[in-house]
Write a structure and sequence with these properties.
2 copies of one chain form a homodimer. With 333 residues, chain A is α/β, with parallel strands linked by helices. Helices cover 56% and strands 12% of the residues of chain A. Chain A is built from 15 helices and 7 strands. In chain A, strands 3-2-4-1-5-6-7 form a 7-stranded parallel β-sheet, sandwiched between helices. In chain A, helix 11 links the parallel strand 6 and strand 7. In chain A, helix 1 crosses helix 2, helix 2 packs across helix 3 and helix 14 runs antiparallel to helix 15. Chain A is globular. Chain A starts with 7 loop residues before the first helix and ends with a helix. The relative contact order of chain A is 0.11. The interface between A and B is large, with 94 and 96 residues.
């Protein structure tokens, strides 16, 4: 786990990255996303260039029009001279995503704009890996010079809470048909939203939904920032300017207080913890002894001779020794 | 981490639980959910009674009518002489959930039925804790004698993938307004659904949505079980019987092959890994030395004198020694 000199190809990538190569950036992101052994070294090398990109999480149910909204906000950011980076956090498998809905189809007008960096991240399979890699990929984009980073996440679940933890501003997009205000509250959105957007506001029920969200907001005291509720028709662009304005207001509001520092610190803490846990887990399950014990234990459970809890205890004992042994061999290497 | 004799109050709870006390069951679930030190012991004690409850995960966007569908399926299960247990996995905070939408409001006719066990679980705050506790609570309900366990989860995200991993049958509920078939595919539902339900099938677009799902299913080869697409109006009960029938068919289909064993094994493996990781993480961050290093490191990052990646490395080194030390002191205790 000590810092190693990076091999030649990674060194070349970092050099090209420094010269502004989008291809090198894409390649580095892939290495980070795949969690290759060099990933931590790459990220550490880039860290001094990580600046102040404003990180915006955009979440909401499928079909709420998040992608369209993100595209329009991105267009406006480009027009304002910003360099936006987009990260779509997408639980799509290669199968469905590749076959039915490529990035190019998804991302309309801004897809071919050289000033925009777009990246979609798969999420399947890795426990806790989503938020970890999201923040890391954002660091790469930040170091690459993006001034705004928009994360788009599908759905409302644990993963979105994690993303909200890592964003500076969280936007919750709802549509009249996605359920009423109470449903939104039920899904715990009140706690994560800095900004509500009622999209497809030309549809029936938009005013009612807006009213319900406002009423729900009234239930709570807002000594600080009260999330505004904005109406958009992302498809036509109506209301998008106001969204960007609200994003900038939230940014200034945080920056003018000590809140941004506190928010950054919490995000950093959750991130460092994730990193440590991810690495521990990695070195634990890579150990052949651990895997053999796990397999034998699972068979014993199947035969009714053990419980998952007993097995966990046993693995925990073994795992501690494994970690210590690995540690010692790395220290003496 | 070795098995300790449980203290008197827990012992009494386990006795009452064995005699069928719902109150004792509720209390034990709370202990498990809170992750008290005795939780593993409790679960290990109950494990021999964990039987063959069929575990069904029900997921979909907010407003899809999952709760209503779950209620109706539950009614039919009760009518068929089954003992259903319901677990609502809900990212609601105490604030919003308590004030706006109590369990009693949520759960219609079956709320007061003595043959039904209902429990809602909060999900906030614990990385990876959701699926862990969901499976554990299901074990308690299973040991209590529930023959079917329905997990209801809000949204489409990482947490739902985790729940799908732990369920025997996963039902995805969509409504005409929740987006089209391509949206559903985009959200990765194809991989987790054993059964699609188009709810609110009296509404405009229901037939179109059904058709889109079927078309999307046609994109893939289904050498084994092909997820059926059912239409329901959960509110009136129309189509609910067919859902239960499909659930039973899926169950038989898995049971008649070796697939159930494989599925159980995968679920068990992911669970044991989660347990080990959760415990490791717990003992890691409870250590005052680790916490002090974390705090000092976060301050150094704020001052621009360190990177999160460097800090993670340092904590990892310290963490391995911490785990080993804790291990030794427990072994010699």
């Amino acid at each position: 786990m000590r810092s190693h000199p990076l091999d030649d190809s990674v060194g070349a990538l970092l050099r090209q990255f420094g010269e502004g190569s989008k291809r090198a950036a894409a390649r580095l992101i892939s290495l980070v996303e795949d969690g290759v052994p060099e990933a931590l070294d790459i990220l550490e090398r880039l860290y001094p260039q990580v600046g102040d990109a404003w990180r915006v999480g955009i979440t909401g149910p499928p079909g709420a029009g998040k992608s369209t909204l993100v595209d329009k906000v991105t267009e406006q950011l480009v027009a304002a001279g910003e360099r936006p980076g987009l990260i779509a956090v997408d639980p799509t498998s290669p199968f469905t995503g590749g076959a039915l809905l490529g990035d190019r189809v998804r991302l309309g007008a801004v897809a071919n704009d050289g000033r925009v960096f777009f990246r979609s991240l798969a999420t399947r399979g890795s426990l806790g890996g989503l938020s970890l890699h999201t923040a890391e990929v954002a660091d790469v984009l930040d170091a690459f010079g993006c001034s705004w980073i928009l994360f788009e996440t599908v759905g409302v679940g644990q993963s979105e809470l994690d993303v909200a933890e890592k964003a500076h501003t969280t936007v919750v997009v709802l549509v009249p048909e996605s359920g009423d205000g109470i449903q939104a509250m039920k899904a715990g959105l009140m706690e994560i939203a800095d900004l509500f957007v009622v999209n497809k506001s030309d549809r029936n029920g938009a005013d009612k939904l807006e009213e319900e969200i406002r009423l729900a907001l009234d239930f709570k005291e807002w000594p600080g920032w009260r999330p505004p509720v904005l109406m958009t028709e992302a498809r036509t662009g109506r209301g998008v300017e106001e969204v960007l304005q609200a994003l900038r207001q939230h940014r200034s509001w945080l920056e003018e207080r000590d809140l941004l520092r506190q928010k950054r610190r919490r995000a950093m803490e959750s991130r460092v913890r994730d990193l440590v846990l991810d690495r521990l887990s990695h070195s634990l399950w890579q150990d052949t002894g651990m895997r053999a014990q796990l397999d034998a234990g699972l068979e014993a459970i199947e035969r009714g001779q053990a419980s998952p809890y007993g097995l966990a205890r046993k693995l925990l004992r073994h795992g501690r020794m494994t970690l210590q042994r690995n540690h010692e061999s790395e220290e003496s290497a």
